[in-house]
Amino acid sequence: MMEEEVVKSHVVGIDISIDSTTYAILDIRGNILAKDSFLTSDYPNVNDFVSKLTESVVLMMEENGGFMSFRSVGISAPSGNFLAGCIANAPNLPWKGVIPLAAMMRDRLGMAVAVANDAHVSALGEYSYGAAHGMENFVVISLGIGLGSCFFSRGQGHRGHLGYAGEIGHTCVIDHGRKCSCGKEGCLEAYTAAQGILRTAREVMEERPTEHSLMRSIEKLTPRLIAECCDKGDELAIEVYRRTGYILGLGLANYASTVDPQAIILTGGITKAGKWLMEPLRESFEEHVFTNLRGQIKILRSHLNDKEREVLGAGALAWVIPEYSLFK
Ligand SMILES: [Zn+2]
Questions:
Q1: Are 150 and 161 in contact (CB under 8 A)?
Q2: With contact defined as beta carbons under 8 Å apart, do 8 and 71 qualify?
Q3: Who has the most CB within 10 Å: 44, 61, 142, 241?
Q4: How far is the CA of 147 from the centre of ligand 1 (A)?
Q5: What tens digit of pLDDT does each residue of 217-238 get?
Q6: Distance 165 CA to ligand 1 centre (A)
């Protein structure tokens, strides 16, 4: 008698970030059944990293429905390339060069594994479970250590010919401006992601040396601490976010004028600055966007928890790839 086939009702969603790697078990309804994480930087050798990740995931699978109930694995990673299944030259991760992560994981797990760019996975998370649910055309911007984006259209993230679409962070906003981590000059990321905001803070303090600011007495300034200074009415800190919002609004207006989205959804740690960022951003956006789009595009902050969005999006990614199993 033939054994009845087990319905594969679970997937694994993984988020590889610069600080930590989070892995979760999701059921078919998108419930997170289990979630855990470890420090990415503890594994400077990529083979050790993949071994640690595989072992952790298999253990979690066994505790949540058993290995045979799992359909596939989705992974979100900085510089992840869905078409190649690789992490390609991620500037901020410990592993250099091109890492064929999907193949490495698939060999160890014996099931289908997909890797995608973190911004694309964020968009999938927002589309499946968040602010973009039901939207046809929208943009997700992730604003943290870097600035990523995804233009999502008709149920899919736009990947481009080589899989690198959405690098709005490395579009030029100031000709021969600040040096960017990518090697170019004047990139939007160099002004609006974490390091850029800190640099703006130093510039503002240098330009206005006689003015009091709480920022001056903070030894290790962060975008979050600058936002806290804004909350206390610190004029120089408010100026830092005013400049950041202005230039981000300009960059997003160019983006929106090109793709005409229903909404722009902002995610990531920097957005926690709230109105200090959002008010100058909205003003600058409306000033710079194509006239017929003025007042038409919603600019929203995501309400999903950052880590949850990534594993939810990675889970959604796992559902859309073809099933494959070594164990049939
Ligand atoms: Zn750049």
A1: no
A2: yes
A3: 142
A4: 9
A5: 999 999 999 999 999 999 999 9
A6: 14
